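Write out the 3D structure for:
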Amino acid sequence: MRVTAITCVKNEGPFVLEWIAFNRLIGVTDFLIYSNDCSDGTDALLDALGAYGVVHLPNPAQGRNYQMEALKAAARHPLVTGADWVWVADVDEFLNIHVPGHDIAALIAACGDPQAITVPFQFFANCGVMQFEDAPVIAQFPRSHNPDLWCADTAIEVKTLVRKDFPLHYYGAHRPFARKGAPQPTWTDGSGRAVPGKFLTAANPRRLRRFPAAGARRFATLNHYALRSLDSYLVKNDRGDVNRGGRAFDDSYWRERNDPAWEDLSIRRYLPALTEALDEMKTHVGALHDACVAAHRARAAELAQDPHYAALRKHLQGLPTFPPGELELARELGLAP
């Protein structure tokens, strides 16, 4: 079974090896990775990973919606047209599969081999980690929000595995869109249940990329490490959004994702195999990885001396950990005193 992952990156060098190694463990065979003007060595590292199924290309985007332009190009690439399944995800997103086998093949079987499987996000908090550490992200950040609540909503964003016979109009970042007039595809959530009808037909603009999370992640969860360490968050803020121009990673973005109310260690099941895979990869590309790590640390040190970023760092450290509206919603639902 060929599974192709598509992603866009900019200055993600310290985190690339972990993401590729993890996805290879769960069954991804090929990676189509578009880079945007990297200055930390990410592009050189990706160029050296051909033996691990990586094809690295410059992002073809001409406008400001970098990800959607890359996805449009990707849909015509042989790695995508020749794949049995396509997985669109970012380098801070890890598909945590709970069913025995803990890989994509097991998830597909548990869901009944549909044409698409949509899995809800679970946003993992900063957990008080200040300094960047060159160690697996999935081990450093064990706490998230209540998986069924996010901010003031019970509907949470999703990502989607897409089978080759899905009646595709185009790939979206969070879900595919079917051709008009095509038969409705078989499409499940992360528990093998049919996705909500309005999500399936893209009938509600407010629910194009999210639906209620309760009960939707029995077989799999998408662990999203959007913050990582405070050092790395400030570097991310400085870099800007890899997927679209003009988006800021400000205190609202931080507050919405920095809720440590819930401990979830389940993804650590992958750590022994992940550590072994990383050690093997570093025997081939360790120097390139180390160069990315050094560049990341150097940029973090530079930002620490910048008055604007020093003030932002202090501000973020002082923010409450409850996201806007979540405590009120939890009380309304009887989930908090």
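The mean pLDDT is 93.
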